[in-house]
Amino acid sequence: MKNKEPKTKFKAALGVAGHLFSRIRCLGAVIMICSSASAQNLFVADGNIYEFTSNGVRSTFASGLTGPSSLAFDRTGNLFVADVTVDSNSMTSGTIYKFTPAGVRSIFASGLSYPSGLARDSAGNLFVADDGDGTIYKFTPQGARSTFASGLSTCSGLAFDRVGNLFVSADFDAVTQGVAKVYKFTPGGVRSTFASGFTGPSSLAFDNAGNLWVADTGDIDGLGTAIYKVTPSGNRSTFLSWPRDQIALGGGLAFDSAGNLFVTDWLSGNILKFTPSGVRSTFASGGGPSLAFQPTPTSSSGRLQNISTRAFGHTGDNAMIGGFIITGSGQKRVILRAIGPSLINHGITHPLQNPTLELHDHTGALIASNDNWMDAPNKQEIMNSGLAPTNNLESAILMSLSPGAYTAIVRGVSNGTGIALVEGYDLDPAAGSKLGNISTRALVQTGDNVMIGGLIMVGPGSDTVLVRAIGPSLAQKGITNPLADPMLELHDGNGTLLASNDNWKDTQQAQIQATGLAPTNDAESAIVQTLEPGNYTAIVRGKKDTIGVAVVEVYGLN
Length: 558
Prior knowledge:
The structure is a single chain. This protein is mostly beta strands. The protein folds into two domains: 258 residues, Neuraminidase (6 Propeller); 254 residues, Jelly Rolls, CATH 2.60.120.380. It contains four helices and 40 strands. The strands form eight sheets. It has an eight-stranded antiparallel β-sheet, with no helix packed on it. It has an eight-stranded antiparallel β-sheet with strand order 29-28-31-26-33-40-35-38, covered by helices on one side. It is globular, with a radius of gyration of 25 Å.
């Protein structure tokens, strides 16, 4: 193991521990999958592991640890704790313990040097920042270890965004102040600098809007501590800052489901609570170097197999743009389709006669395209999937994709217009990755030209979904004619209305906020619904028959 005396002294002072494509990329920022459940009690590492109710009542969840430095939950409520031991020669060693919800402890991993940050990805893999050797390790749910990234001088806080990118606070230097960074790693391990200029960044946490929050513990010379907010585009602002003789951040940082921020103050020994507007209160005494909210366990075994959207395909900025996200680990086999002329068999009088389909990655780069599916080089594989289009003028792309965000664009050949479907199907449900969400942007009109999103739920169990209709907030993404007041309906396979919503705060406000995916504009619509296996339809139209560009989205919450 490694001699950690210089860093240990510092830690001891704190406590152990293109025009259209530009719009497509902006749209990708709002199309994000989140499968977290609403928060329960707050868990705190402070020598022991303490559990706090929502009212701040403390109980001891686990004891007998040496120096717990970080916490992370899996989806079933098991708690993982990074525990650090320092011997008489200032040599450190680290162990990861797993605690069941009932408090039964077992060793999940050992042989680490100074594990100081934990985070789980959507596939259940545990990532560990080992500050002792500047390495980020990845552990499968079964405990198999591999190196995800190395070569960091220091590393502590970890946090995943909703599309599977890992963010790391790293490269602190106690001598050269203000050079520490937050790095962003893609699911494939490609590193870039997301934000810089920090003094001593420790814990990281994402809020419901996808902003990254950084607890900067400052330095040992008293330059102060601060909490920074960094937008998805990397713009940093100061949420709050203090001289070190007023508040000394201890590294703990966590959000509850209502968007309140909880931090640890070493100076007072308290856990502080900040509302989204910055109002401060003392939540409880007994803060530690790591905070984590326990998720509500879910038991649903249902899943989204297919999500599609029907809308009127125009030209230019009003083309149909489908955004979808693959989460988890490993590649996902999918088929994407652009359906047009065969819609006439379903009573559509003005179908898009000859649709083309393009697939772009998150940078806007074209990775595949198709005009007529029979011309695809893997047409036999498309036929073997059982999902080949019924008209030769329709388009299909079948390929394996790595976790990440993608956009599918449907246009008409020679600028043709008409009603079309854009669809995405999961062809490999057993894979470690998941087709979690597809969202479509199109021009919403009236009558048959409203936007209709269809989804298929497969069993054996149910799944809870969030359906959203986004309109006015698209103006912030460069859309000049957004749908000002979208209305949303959810129907079952028989056409029966299950739920409807005009303004999302009018119904289910608490449930929608708890998903972390509440719309940012009060005039937008959302519905949370538990669905049994079957077919469902979401209809988006403008209030009082207004028209404009809107996005319809479906998220699997389990």
